Amino acid sequence: MIKSLSQYKEDYRKSVEDPAEFWSEYSKSFFWRKEPGNILSWNFEDPDVKWFFDGKLNITENIFERNKKNENDTAIIWEPNDPNEKNKELSYSQLFKQVCSFANVLKALGVKKGDRVIIYLPMIPEAAISMLACARIGAVHSVVFAGFSAKSLSDRINDCKAKVVVTSDGNYRGNKTIPVKDVVDEALKTSSSVKSVLTIKRTNSKIQMVEGRDYWYQDLIKSVKNYCAAEMMDSEDLLFILYTSGSTGKPKGVVHTCGGYMIYSQYSFENIFQYERGDTYWCTADVGWITGHSYIVYGPLLSGAKTIMFEGVPNYPTPSRFWDVIDKYDVNQFYTAPTAIRALQSYGDKYVDGYEFRSLKVIGSVGEPINEEAWKWYYEKVGMRKCPLVDTWWQTETGGIMISPIPNVIDCKPTYATLPLPGIQPILLDNDGNEIKENNREGNLCIKFPWPSILRTTYGDHKRCKETYFSTFKGYYFTGDGAKRDDNGMYRILGRVDDVINVSGHRIGTAEVEDAINQDVNVVESAVVGYPHEIKGQGIFAFVIINNLKSGYDYSSSIRLSVTKHIGPIAKPDNILIVPGLPKTRSGKIMRRILRKISSKEFDNFGDTSTLLNPEIIDLITSLYKDKINK
Ligand code: PRX
Fold first, then answer.
1. 208: left (phi over 0), alpha (psi -120 to 50) or beta
2. Is the CB of 294 under 6 A from ligand 1?
3. pLDDT at residue 225, rounded to an integer
4. Are 424 and 447 in contact, with CB atoms under 8 Å apart?
5. How far is it, in rounded angstroms, from Cα 354 to Cα 359?
6. Residue 120 belongs to domain with CATH number
7. Which of 252, 394, 421 has the most ligand 1 atoms within 8 A of CB, as the residue to mutate?
8. What pTM did the predictor assign?
9. Are 317 and 371 members of one domain?
């Protein structure tokens, strides 16, 4: 573990001078069934990256068998949605038995190495258990955030041709109960690959069970053994697929493989959170996102940590819930998203004042840029000005944290993710692909050398992977983010430079939302942009052209319904403006930068508009929006 700045510098130097040697050294503490013969082969042209090639392993053996001497340590603490319900604690040995039982249930359903399993679950222990059960038998999990709609779920099932879906009879979320099994039933009307649905009892809601397809997990588990031998995996075999949005088309399945992901999730977890045995660590993310994969499940469990899984939401039953949970378990490391911080801040200090947070040693932020005000509030009110605040920058595609302070090693600086971890080689490029060597200039953030948990492909479509990440700047991995570097080499992430919006830390492609809006029969065309939003970071603004506009009709509700149906409530536009036309270039492209300005209430200095076919539309849209604001 990195404990000093000089050690960081030394490790960083080694990791750049001889990356294979650096990671080979680190990989020695893992349990390999067969040691890797070749540490790294790569090119960013195809792209083709292989780490620990030829090595044989199973990631769950590295969680359970490798750490057997600590099997009585607590692995997972589960805190339910309702604070009055009893929580659960699972030791490593108990978790291991449950993972093995789950693995045996999957096997009984015919799941084999390489098969895809969709996990559509709330934050209950079975979410982690089912992921690990897949990993145990070499099946590839693809967790889908349980807030996604039936259409989104079926798109993902169809894309990876999943054999099994794991779900529950319902989800608790704050004071709501969400009928997730109904969503699965709906999704399966348009998905033929699924042979079985494994349903976990959580809410005792009345649901339909389809004979021969749907099984209660609680029934099947009764007849299986609680030991299951680990499948031997190649380092480059698939561990999981996680779907994420980009600027174009449908969400793509980001592929992570066994060896590199295992190494990097542990390495980054240990260093960024400086986890010591006995500490209690809590990441508030959902396992439906990469943060939940790497920093609730794999990173902490590989490190033998005690990790909290939280089923609820930050403001239920009160906006003190996070602080109550920190107090209840004496949490030492706390990791959350800026949107949650801003939301909790907006309720007023009375909900946080009075808590002392004596146990906290590190607080973290992830998912979107954290603005200075939120940073300071978090640092002062929760970190009590004593805890380093790690602003961690990374992505679904990077598998693990890339740029972040290391507590008590690298100084924190508000709004800066600061320095790259060893092994990570960032570079800023201008739009022509030239390196920006001087400091304090904005550029496109790229990475010039592979790290162990870089995505390997996008599932079923390698060309898309190449085009999305490796073609904009030849020879580099392009992150899609803009950044700048200060005079101390520290990076500040400025947000997406492509057509991706970051809403409450969720990545949403503008094209996806437009597609969903255009499904509404009233809509002729739409354009979606992100705009600054006080709590969500970015909000979704939709400019929509309606066919045969009638006064008095509630088009906004109908549009929002369409988005909820096609994607899910997280992608619902915050602001909808009905417009007579959209600013288009002669080649028919929508000039989004103009819409971005209008949505941000910047009503002048539109820059060069000479290529517009219909420049008069700018004034029209502007006055419509001003009217709306003044109403
Ligand atoms: O724009 C960056 C933003 O979130 C994007 C990645 O989103 P996703 O793949 O969903 O993963 C989120 C959790 C890792 C990035 O391209 N982002 C993530 N962390 C930060 C951030 N932006 C600024 N600061 C961060 N710390």
1. beta
2. no
3. 98
4. yes
5. 14
6. 3.40.50.12780
7. 394
8. 0.96
9. yes
Residues 80 and 224 grouped into a single domain = yes
Closest Cα partner for 326 from 336, 273, 73? 336
Specify whether 468 is located in the same domain as 548: no
206 lies in a domain? yes
Verify that 34 and 117 share a domain, yes or no: yes
pLDDT tens, residue by residue, 569-579: 999 999 999 99
Asked if the peptide bond before residue 573 counts as cis, ω within 30 degrees of 0, the response is: no
| Token pair listed for 521 | 């029969």
Q: How far apart are CA 359 and CA 16, in angstroms?
A: 36
Place of tokens 């790690």: 390
pLDDT for 2 equals 98
The answer as to whether 486 is a domain residue is no
In a domain, 491, yes or no: no
Kindly state whether residues 512 and 427 are assigned to the same domain: no
CB of 417 closer than 6 angstroms to any ligand 1 atom: yes
Cα distance between residue 444 and residue 483, in whole Å: 6
Counting as low any pLDDT under 70, the low residues of the chain are none
For ligand 1, is residue 502 a contact (CB within 6 Å)? yes
Half-sphere exposure of 33 (CA within 13 A, CB side): 17
- Give the range of the structural domain holding residue 542, as residue numbers without chain letter: 500-630
What total number of domains does the chain contain?
A: 2
pLDDT, tens only, 538-571: 999 999 999 999 999 999 999 999 999 999 999 9
> Would you say the CB of residue 81 lies under 6 angstroms from ligand 1?
no
- Sequence-separated contacts (24+) of 457-461 with Cβ below 8 Å: 457/255, 458/252, 458/253, 458/254, 458/255, 459/159, 459/160, 459/241, 459/252, 459/253, 459/254, 459/255, 460/159, 460/160, 460/253, 461/252
Q: Which atom of ligand 1 lies closest to the CA of 396?
A: 9
Note the pLDDT of residue 246. Answer: 84
Nearest to 391 by CA among 496, 378, 10, 288: 378
Alpha-carbon dihedral 544, 244, 392, 431, rounded to 10 degrees? -70
- Same domain? For 125 and 184 the reply is yes
Question: Which of 144, 370, 395 to mutate for ligand 1's pocket (most ligand atoms within 8 Å of CB)?
Answer: 395
Domain boundary among 478, 508, 532: 478
Q: Would you say residue 408 lies in a domain? A: yes
Ligand 1 centre distance from Cα of residue 316 (Å): 26
The answer to whether 209 touches 175, Cβ cutoff 8 Å, is: no
Q: Are 584 and 616 contained in the same domain? A: yes
pLDDT tens, position by position, 86-125: 999 999 999 999 999 999 999 999 999 999 999 999 999 9
The answer to whether residues 341 and 204 belong to one domain is: yes
